[in-house]
From TrEMBL:
The keyword Transmembrane is annotated on this UniProt entry: yes
Xref: Pfam families: EAL (PF00563), GGDEF (PF00990)
Organism in which the protein naturally occurs: Kineosporia babensis
Keyword Transmembrane in annotation: yes
Domain EAL per the UniProt entry, residue ranges: 479-735
Transmembrane segments: 24-44, 51-71, 77-99, 132-157, 163-180, 192-211, 257-276, 282-302
NCBIfam families: GGDEF
CDD domains the record matches: EAL, GGDEF
Name under which the protein is recorded: Bifunctional diguanylate cyclase/phosphodiesterase
Length: 756
């Protein structure tokens, strides 16, 4: 940035103070711009190349015309002609942008919904064609004045000499209009527009300076023209030159109010053309200028009125789906008059597991799903229903009680699968409903009630519809208070509670040796006492705290392993559970390796347990777990056998241990259980994967599992989860052989329960 500005400053100063070099600086800049444009096209390969070719043609024609005018003054007609053709190239660039942009807008514009009605449709039509009408009016007036000029030129005055000022008027209006109407312009585009405006200013200064005999103006014109050419050297060197004429970038308009202001320069063109006609030849009747000016002013006023109406409509609409937004919903609800005789129902619909869609397929697929849901709700709703998007993945329906109930409408809308990223998949939703019987109700209270009902529907197992009941408020408030306490506990506020890690041994079934232990979090709440993880982990997932909890457990468990080694207990591995949030965390590998480094624990002493029924996105955590496995960490698959993707997980992740769910190991007496377990053991052996049986609660169960070839077990019969201090005592009592007290190598045992 500094170097180009320095060069531009040097060019401007040199051209202003040494007029003899100004023309050569202009030529070098123009031809350098041509070379720079070709280099930029080859280097950056923009998709829109035609506009750049027109810029190159403009530079060549403009510089050639100036060169001929200086070297061969008698060929001034040819020089002026080349300059006019160069102006036409610039006009071609602008018109190409207008035409391409308009086509793109027509292709991408979403059709207005029924709420837009005549106001919105008329507004969009005027928005779409107001610019075009103004451009057509300007071009028609310019063509008419050009034809009149060609018929009235005196001898010795070339037509091109008369056309160049007219072309300058048109160009500067178009460029200013474009510059003021865009919300964001790439730097290359801004540089090109500034160069064009400077060229026009230079021409004006040259004409005025010649008429007044002002050397200062003529020198300034030469300096500005030279700097303008060097801007064309700079622009193609910018990486943004790929977006300079890209319709997607240029589609980002300013607000309608700002665009309306940008129309004002166009409305002044008839006045300027009239003045130019007074100065020379080709003046049209004054009535024509007045008529065109009045028409253009009326078009601008019509657009202004439509802009106001459209902005009012748009302020109450969700831009993406076209449904009412929160403001629009409140406004629509104020227009209905519910009563005990004619009640209305308000339903809030929340898509279940919408975050899963975003995490798996990306936010673009999630946005597309929202549009599909909005379309379904429109199709299923009857006339008179109010439909809106409340925010995120929440939709609102307001309809008379006599219509189809919200539950039926929700079921119909979500009955058929949706297309998500090219895949057909079922999508479910939970809904909360409240009944409106008075128009005097506070909207915030109404939305609070329906929001509470949605929470109750989610808590009831999702894919359900719950009607608000005052008792739900206490339940939800209790839930929210628990989340608040959970967050405070994570922040170290002991007044809310403390976390503890309990450890449950993993035992070799044949020998009773303790091979490792699983770290299990407990929450000692300040008022509610000890809370098991199945009562708060779900809350942590939905409130975004699960990842922090997993990291806390990981670090605490590794510190405990380090303490056991420091106390001479020996090397033992610890198994730590990873929830869904952690599996989706791209920083998981770095955080885990850093925790191992800080605690000094060997990677082989850490097992990470992933849960099969978490329904993780297909690629979630695959690379992370591969990196950790390469470092020496082992991966276990927990709750194996209760979902639908167990075998897929074995292929997807570097699993080295299977933990059989207790639902498989608890019914060993049923006929299918033994063959199933035998098959799992055989498969694990072929894959060189260890098998751990969870939920061992009796001695016959342990013996049977050992007979089936399952090497490791875990359960209350062997040892309950213990606080860190009790687990330390147990390991000391077990001794170097790490036998559970009372366990003999032959396999008979007396289990000591240290949980009391």
């Amino acid at each position: 940035m500094v170097l180009p500005l320095t060069v531009l400053s040097a060019v401007g100063v040199a051209a202003a103070f040494w007029p003899s070099v100004a023309f050569w600086l202009f030529l070098v800049g123009a031809w350098g711009g041509v070379v720079s444009a070709f280099v930029g096209l080859a280097r950056f390969r923009p998709s829109e190349r035609v506009a750049w070719y027109l810029v190159i043609a403009m530079l060549l024609l403009f510089s050639t015309g100036k060169l001929i005018g200086v070297a061969q003054p008698q060929l001034s007609v040819l020089a002026d002609g080349l300059t006019f053709v160069a102006q036409s190239c610039v006009l071609g660039v602008v018109l190409r942008l207008v035409v391409i942009r308009r086509r793109q807008m027509q292709r991408s514009a979403t059709p207005p919904d029924e709420g837009f009605s005549a106001v919105g449709e008329q507004g969009r039509s005027i928005f779409r064609y107001a610019d075009l009408l103004l451009l057509i009016g300007i071009c028609a007036l310019v063509v008419a004045q050009t034809l009149a000029t060609s018929l009235t030129l005196p001898a010795g005055v070339s037509m091109a000499e008369r056309l160049v000022p007219v072309g300058n008027v048109v160009l500067v209006c178009f460029m200013v209009r474009f510059l003021l109407s865009r919300a964001r312009l790439p730097r290359a585009t801004v540089l090109g527009l500034l160069a064009g405006i400077m060229i026009v200013c230079s021409d004006v200064m040259t004409v005025v300076g010649a008429a007044q005999g002002s050397v200062l103006l003529e020198r300034g014109a030469g300096a500005i023209l030279a700097v303008a050419m060097w801007l064309f050297v700079w622009a193609p060197r910018e990486p943004s030159m790929t977006e300079a004429f890209d319709v997607v970038s240029l589609l980002q308009s300013r607000s309608e109010s700002a665009r309306l202001v940008a129309l004002m320069p166009l409305a002044g063109v008839p006045v300027v053309l009239y003045v130019l006609g007074q100065q020379g030849h080709g003046r049209l009747p004054a009535l024509i200028y007045v008529s065109v000016g009045v028409v253009m002013a009326l078009v601008a006023l019509a657009r202004g009125a439509s802009a106001v109406r459209f902005n009012e409509w748009q302020a109450e609409r969700d831009w993406y789906t076209g449904l009412l937004n929160r403001r629009g919903l409140v406004s629509a609800m104020r227009r209905i008059e519910p009563s005990p005789q004619q009640p209305w129902q308000l339903a809030m619909i929340d898509i279940d597991d919408f975050k899963h869609v975003n995490d798996t397929f990306g936010h673009e697929a999630g946005d597309d799903l929202l549009v599909q849901v909005a379309d379904r709700l429109r199709q299923e709703s009857q006339d008179g229903a109010i439909i809106g998007r409340f925010g995120g993945d929440e939709f609102v329906l307001v309809l008379p009680v006599g219509h189809a109930c919200a539950a039926e409408l929700t079921d119909r809308a979500f009955a058929a699968p949706f297309t998500v990223a090219g895949h057909e998949m079922p999508v479910r939703a939970s809904a909360g409903v409240t009944v409106l019987e008075s128009s005097d109700r506070d909207e915030s209270q109404t939305f609070t009630e329906v929001d509470i009902a949605v929470y109750a529907a989610k808590a009831a197992g999702k894919n359900t519809v719950v009607t608000y009941d005052p008792k739900h408020r206490e339940q939800i408030l209790g839930r929210q208070n628990l989340i608040t306490d959970l967050r405070r506990t994570l922040q170290g506020d002991r007044a809310a509670g403390t976390f503890e890690v309990h450890y449950q041994p993993l035992v070799e079934l044949g020998t009773g040796l303790i091979s490792g232990c699983e770290a299990l979090i407990r929450w000692r709440h300040a008022e509610r006492g000890m809370i098991r993880p199945d009562h708060f982990i779900g809350l942590a997932e939905t409130s975004g705290l699960a990842g922090e909890i997993d990291r806390w457990v990981l670090l605490e468990a590794l510190h405990q392993v380090a303490r056991w080694e420091a106390e001479g207990i020996g090397s033992i591995y610890v198994s730590v559970n990873l929830g869904r949030t952690s599996m989706l965390d791209p920083a998981l590998a770095d955080a885990t390796l850093e925790a191992l480094r800080v605690t000094g624990v060997e990677p082989s002493q850490l097992h990470l347990e992933i849960t099969e029924h978490d329904e993780l996105p297909r690629e979630a955590g695959a690379l992370t777990l591969a990196l950790l496995t390469e470092a020496g960490v082992r991966v276990s698959l927990d709750d194996f056998g209760i979902g639908y993707t167990s075998l897929d997980y074995l292929h997807r992740y570097p699993v080295r241990q299977l933990k059989l769910d207790r639902s498989i190991t608890s019914n060993l007496q049923t006929a299918p259980s033994s063959p199933l377990l035998e098959g799992i053991v055989a498969m694990a052996k072929s894959l060189q994967v260890d098998v751990v049986a969870e939920g061992i609660e009796t001695e016959p169960q342990r013996e049977r599992l050992a007979d089936l070839g399952i090497a490791y077990g875990q359960g209350y019969h062997l040892c309950r989860p213990q606080p860190a201090e009790a687990m330390t005592s147990l390991l000391r009592e077990a001794g170097p052989a790490r036998l559970i007290p009372g366990q003999r190598a032959e396999g008979t045992q007396t289990v000591i329960d240290l949980s009391s």
